[in-house]
Write a structure and sequence with these properties.
Number of helices of chain A: 7
Number of helices of chain B: 10
CATH superfamily of chain B: MetI-like
Shape of chain A: globular
CATH class of chain B: Mainly Alpha
Oligomer: heterodimer
Strand content of chain A: 15-25%
Protein name (chain A): ABC transporter
Organism (chain B): Cellulomonas phragmiteti
Largest sheet of chain B: none
Domain ABC transporter (chain A): 6-237
Pfam families (chain A): ABC_tran
CATH topology of chain B: MetI-like fold
CATH topology of the largest domain in chain A: Rossmann fold
Strand order of the largest sheet of chain A: 6-7-8-3-9-10
CATH architecture of chain B: Orthogonal Bundle
Helix content of chain B: over 70%
Keywords (chain A): ATP-binding, Nucleotide-binding, Transport
Distance between the termini of chain A: 36 Å
Number of strands of chain B: 0
Structural class of chain A: alpha/beta
Amino acid sequence: MGDALLEVRDMHLALPAPGGPRSVLAGADLAVPRGAFTCVVGPSGCGKSTLLGVVAGLRRPDRGAVLLDGRDVTGTTGHAAWMAQDDLLLEWRTVLDNVALGLQVQGVRRREARARVRDLLDEFGLAGHVDARPSELSGGLRQRAALARTVAQGRELLLLDEPFGALDALTRLHLQRWLAATWAAHRWTVVMVTHDVREAVTLADEVVRLSGQPAQIAARYRVDEPHPRHPAGLGPATRRVEQDVLTGLGVLGAPDDAPVPVP
Amino acid sequence: MTRGPGRALPVVAGAAALLVLWQVVVAVGGIAPRLLPSPARVAQQAWAHREVLAAHAGATLTVTLVGFSVSVAVAGVLAVTLDRLPRLRAGVVPLLVASQTVPVLVVAPLLVLWFGFGLAPKVLVVTLVTFFPVALGLVEGFAAAGPGASALLATMGASRWQEFAYVRLPAAMPRFFTALRIGVTYAVVGAVVAEYAGAVHGLGTYMTMQRAAFRTDLVLAAVGVCAALTLTLYALTCLAERVVVPWARPRQVRHG
């Protein structure tokens, strides 16, 4: 794809394990156009997070390349904003200073970094919690703060690793709806890993399904319904994609690849 | 943590009750003052000798503070080095533990023998006694940051120095202050032990002299000054902790 901001080519990675290296990624390919939202789904423990970590530069792949805007960034960091399932907010920093962290790392002075992220806090519904410490926030607000910190870095590419995975169902629904609307207004380029298929089809332009370990791309699904979508009010076409993905994962009907391991 | 009169009251009441009991036992039993002086006599004699006591307390305080500062500085350098070199850490931490098994009472006279009656041997004793908790507190504190936060900083393109300044150092502060509080109480005792082994000034020297003169009241007065010194340093450390580590005491939790 010529206009892809992110390209992952033929990614191979084996990780040390008892009894010799275990292949985790075996030839994963991705192409994410600028301004597109891609969701990666797959069976539990298939290597979704590992794939995201490799794109972020936390691990160097054994083979394959990560290209950002055509530039080879394999094994390097600092080109994408990454968010883990654990919000990783620093307890000694206020919400404002947590969100400003990325800019400070980039060499922006603390005062200026704070000034630059203030508007973002308003937009993320954190205006009343600017000076709060993370321990004073509810789970949903913590995830919003972590998302704000990710966006505030000003990178073109956002890598979200199950950002709502640890939330209760109701809070998750609220945040999915909110993210769908916020993303539609900004059109950041996003790769998001999730185990929630409804979440994936609500947010994504394309859903990529990985096979069981070692992970390869098992299938890609386009979701054409206009943004922003509502997780509880998806159109029939999107609902059909959801059924297809669930069928592919072996949750509905006959599995079309390796059986899903029971966790 | 609740503070204020509600928390201090039982402590004060308990101490007062003990003092009263002590006073009564001495008065009723007719115990000789050189065996066990009454608390009133100890207080009265302490006041009468306040200038000498203050001078010796000053000497002990100097040894304590210099020794403890050296200890914290050396522990800081060592802990940062070990944090950078995980393989070295596995080898050195057992040595730190071993350093705690050295009996200070035995080593202190040797240090006086080697370094004379000056500040050096006493500072060394205080350092020896307090180094272990402080160094271990820092080493474990740095490790308490966890791999997730380090990974986050890495994806931001942070240098090792930035990762240390933004994550590892602040993460270490709660444990560091716990270690400081333990260390500072050992420090005063360490200084007194060092003075006991041989010195010209200090509360340890003063106690040795007064014991030889059978002035049990003044020995106990010096013990009281020691305790007051320790409690003051402990309280100052707690105060510093509240200023430096405010996040360890969460304010009222809000929801939203």
